[in-house]
Amino acid sequence: MSRHVRFDKIGPPDVLHLVDLDVPAPAAGEVRIRVKAIGVNRAEAMFRSGQYLEEPKLPAGLGYEAAGEIESIGEGVTGFAIGDAVSVIPAFSLNQYGLYGELVLAPAFAVIKHPPNLSFAEAAAAWMMYVTAYGALIDIARLSAADAVLIPAASSSVGIAAIQIANMVGATPIALSRTSAKRARLQELGAAHVIATEEQDLVAEVGRITNGQGARVTFDPVGGPTLAKLAEASARHGIIFQYGALSPEPTLLPLFDLLRNLLTIRGYVLMEITGDPARLQRAKSFVVDGLAKGALRPVIAKTFPLDQIVEAHRFLESNQQIGKIVVTV
């Protein structure tokens, strides 16, 4: 028996609770992992509250990311041995696998040995954020040293990953935050510029920073009315990635700026990358290389023990964190 997080109804963090479960032996193509640390993601909070891309099949589990040691191996799995330190890349449905637990099953294609310079907590924090940012910025946008990239919600784990990846390729990361309270920390984390959107004129500041050219790439998890300003601040032929919907307000198409700047506004989700074996392999190589060199380094905002999973989700939804929330097991 091992402890696992479950929820029996859609709702706030309080619906989460721990149960004891027997975890079966891994089937063909699976491994069973003794978990040491779990990454907590906004997608999981949205799944729990019924606001995600798929509806939970109740009673449901949670968890896209975990790091630990392989405890047993299913038929046909190669490249791993019992005792290997590994982490899991989000590449599956939360209705199929859930990694919030002490002993979990995971599909072997989504499991990777992490560089030895990472702790288990750092490994659990790495893959959702780096592969999400890599997919949009590198795989699709081909971000380069000539580019400026706008990063709303920059203090989130994915926002920080985007800052680091932009710096890794020599681009100019422009972090957006509602107020200036996080300015100094975002600059410490590598943001070339920080714009407090409730205190400064977003369009004017981007124009000043880019000498009137605008930002070629925007990586936005928020949507809502700010999309119009992001479009106005974009460069001609710019691309706006809409990879989330954190704003509760409607997201309206900024048609005139779309036409004037010949923009692409593109929906994007992580599974576009992790669902394609060739693109996933390129993502793994990019991230492993960046981690090994130290160009990519997970930033952990706070850790919680497994029996405080409700508190971890409450902290996630408070938006106070800078970096990743990790649960230790």
TrEMBL record:
It comes from the Bacteria. Pfam families: ADH_N, ADH_zinc_N. It comes from Methylocella tundrae. Residues 11-327 form the Enoyl reductase (ER) domain. The keyword NADP applies. InterPro entries: ADH-like_C, ADH-like_N, ER, GroES-like_sf, NAD(P)-bd_dom_sf. SUPFAM superfamilies: GroES-like (SSF50129), NAD(P)-binding Rossmann-fold domains (SSF51735). This is NADPH:quinone reductase. Keywords: NADP, Oxidoreductase. GO terms for molecular function: NADPH binding; oxidoreductase activity, acting on NAD(P)H. PANTHER family: QUINONE OXIDOREDUCTASE PIG3-RELATED, ZINC-CONTAINING ALCOHOL DEHYDROGENASE.
